[in-house]
Fold this sequence. Notes:
Two copies of one chain form a homodimer. The first copy, chain A, is α/β, with parallel strands linked by helices. Helix content of chain A is 51%, strand content 12%. In chain A, the strands form two sheets. The first copy, chain A, has a seven-stranded parallel β-sheet, with helices on both faces. A two-stranded antiparallel ribbon of chain A has the order 4-5. The first copy, chain A, starts with a helix and ends with a helix.
Amino acid sequence: MHVMSGIKSQHDGMGKASVKKFSKKSALVIDQEEYLREIQKGSRLHLAKAITFVESTVSDQQAIGQQLLKSLLSHTGNSIRIGITGVPGAGKSTFIEAFGMMLCDLGYRVAVLAIDPSSTLTGGSILGDKTRMEELARHPNAFIRPSPTAGTLGGVHKKSRETMLLCEAAGYDIILVETVGVGQSETIVRGMVDFFLLLALTGAGDELQGMKKGIMELADAIVVNKADGANEKLAKKTVAEYKQILHFLAPSSPYWNTPALAVSSLYKSGLDSVWETILIFKKEMIEQNAWQYRRKEQTVDWFNSMIVDRLYRDFFSSVEKKETMAQLESLVRDEKVTVSQAVEELFSSNSKQ
Amino acid sequence: MHVMSGIKSQHDGMGKASVKKFSKKSALVIDQEEYLREIQKGSRLHLAKAITFVESTVSDQQAIGQQLLKSLLSHTGNSIRIGITGVPGAGKSTFIEAFGMMLCDLGYRVAVLAIDPSSTLTGGSILGDKTRMEELARHPNAFIRPSPTAGTLGGVHKKSRETMLLCEAAGYDIILVETVGVGQSETIVRGMVDFFLLLALTGAGDELQGMKKGIMELADAIVVNKADGANEKLAKKTVAEYKQILHFLAPSSPYWNTPALAVSSLYKSGLDSVWETILIFKKEMIEQNAWQYRRKEQTVDWFNSMIVDRLYRDFFSSVEKKETMAQLESLVRDEKVTVSQAVEELFSSNSKQ
């Protein structure tokens, strides 16, 4: 499967004996010109390798990833970035497969930043469930990149944004970003994409009870999935319910009336309306200058959150600091010390080191 | 007015000549035993002074504030903490005055952490509009503390939480915390209080367009204000509309059905129902062990946000750093560098200093 080739072949051509000796230098032997050329020519292999460099925690590999990205930066930004969320069981991967297949068949090149559900167990990035998006993975116009959920900001890989840019440089027209639908992941993914799609199930009232607060107001469209068979009538009722609620909510994007639609990923019905909605959205946002404006703001927001993340990580890099923090947190929780005193204590223990 | 006495008399008893000489030491002459005794006896003067110490940016004054707070910590936590928000014009101060008067007349001691609308202009903490809560300010059971909006986290003073604790140690039964209703202030205040009240105006659909996203899901009650005169019928219709929307939203607190109520602050009608709602809420939350649990979690969350705030402040303490940041932000916005590169650059410029 081409999906994993980047990881598997990272040390291609190096014998076992040489791996140890050159392990730190192995990343430095790449031919950058070749990478830039091949990525832009659409080589999945080189794209996958470049993403692996960007995601790497080894600093010189990371540096190569950044260098490649910088050289490709002028070729990015030409895709439609679509985030897809929904409660577990809403059928996210089935929808992405059906929607992605339709787009590929229309001639678009589609990259999917997928969640790897097995990664927290294996520590790796291997698709545990081989049947996930199997058909789409074989389509010549598709590229699926599963990301480990480890090393993430609220369930989104820290480098997802840069992976997206690499896919754009490789000429993908549409990027589909899947979210785990827990924690802060929706907010973070909303901050990465142009269009945010909430996948819902029939029975809005019940489902909303389990939905993250404010999530509906992040969505640019609500798509009720599994509108097929005996469920079809109920799906239409759910769409009507969502429309009613949406009427009262603040819109996700300026001057946009968030629509509710019904689809069947199984019977591939309604998917064309979803795509049509996205194209109308893009047209309207560009007319209002909101498309590029939002992207620039998103980039700056990302910059700021990366700074906070880095400050936090640097500060808590030592075991002692983490232990002090745990002790202070417990004292604060039990109201033995004030928050201000605990903060002072935490920062003074830093200066002593 | 007793409200400001803490600030005005901070240097009482010191001639002009001595102010300069002892200015750094003046804060150190307080009799701590006297403060602890007088605050617990209900002296507004000592309470106001203690708050001023806690809010101070002068480190030895701040240390006194923290010392007082620490000694009083075991006397805190016995109030009902109520946050009040609403769009500008919803009548927050009118509502707080009417609601506070009713509570005071019932025999409760009520502290109000109010917003000082003039503070951003004057830099001080003087109530610009003298008529704001004038009646309540004169009530023997009330204590009003206006806070400057400067030095805030999203419109909430960084020390509001500690001010609240001091008021509790001084025996106030109910703390009303006003929010400016912009930026992150609702989320921050929701993280400080037991009960969060959203003050709304008639005409839900229209008003919601201007309301911050997700705000309704933070509220434990929605109170439609100005339900008087010609407006009364419309207010009832608005209450019904809110009830309908609330039916679809996730509740703010576990197992709580957020009610919508109509009040007239002008004619003092419906205020008793609001108070009754709060008492039922408290009873139910205590039965579920959710009351204390939420408070502990709030304290830990506050601790964490203070750490991030401090890290950010320390990092950007130099002018050079702020300038580097501004330059990098502009490069990031225009996609001249990647976010990762900008972060690297920002942190490497730090280590050079």
